[in-house]
Amino acid sequence: MEINNDLIETAELAALIEKKTPNLKLLEVSANPPNLPEPGLAEYKEEHLPGAIYFNYHVTANKECPGKIGDEKVFVDYVKEKKIRKSDLIVCYDHKGVIQSPRLWFIFRLHGAQNVKVLNGGLVKWKSEGHSTEKGDSPVVVYPSDPDKEDSYDYKRNPEMLVNVDYINSVIPELTSGKGDIFLIDTRPSENFNGTKPEPIEGMRAGHVKGAINMPTSTFLGADGITLKSIEEVKKVFESKGVRIDKKIISMCMRGVNASVIMFNLWRLGKKDIIMYDGNWYEYGLRPEPKN
What we know:
5-stranded parallel sheet, 11 helices, Oxidized Rhodanese, domain 1, alpha/beta, 2 domains
């Protein structure tokens, strides 16, 4: 498989910023709880990358089930408001490393954006290397931008990148057969996956989908805890769990955030057919356990 290089390093981004690269859009995504009115906005105002735009992706989530992505129109309306066009060079980052940024990367990829990056190490690594930041509630640095065209915001969702709860239940026999034709990876912490830690939501079952494999997000982080492992190290992570990347792989977690880290790393390895269970444990754990 051909490597997909959507991980951008701080030095490369610094060079793009210095040149004031046309159509560059830096998106700061919050790592704070989604129940806050504007999660992460205070952090953004205090300090952000030069020219960065505050992006509250919780706006685009399903209101009834936070584990699902909301309507396509809601997403398109929000990116229009933020003036983020489908053809822009979009760089996603967060304050605390690589936590929420892959989720935003996935949402843009899901809707057809082709030039989306994740900043390795986020704002933490950026600052540790002495790069400059801004303050305030709107960007100070403004990057040159081409005029809008008729199709500038022609985002279209790819339904093949999502599966629903009925599909998950239908493949449980395959997941438990041991044949290895399909894999379901659950990225929640091991204590949640194993059911030894009660879930924080009333009525939610503990445990996991039958046949799922547990690969917590921390598995993909380097020793510093803020950057992703190298391509070779990522390959070894999947191999250690017996996961074949040439087979069908579905990811899930609690709300879709950590599952996006799995998909981003699969993408880095060249896998184009990345799939998420849209609903995640937030939906599955509130349903009766299937009998199959």
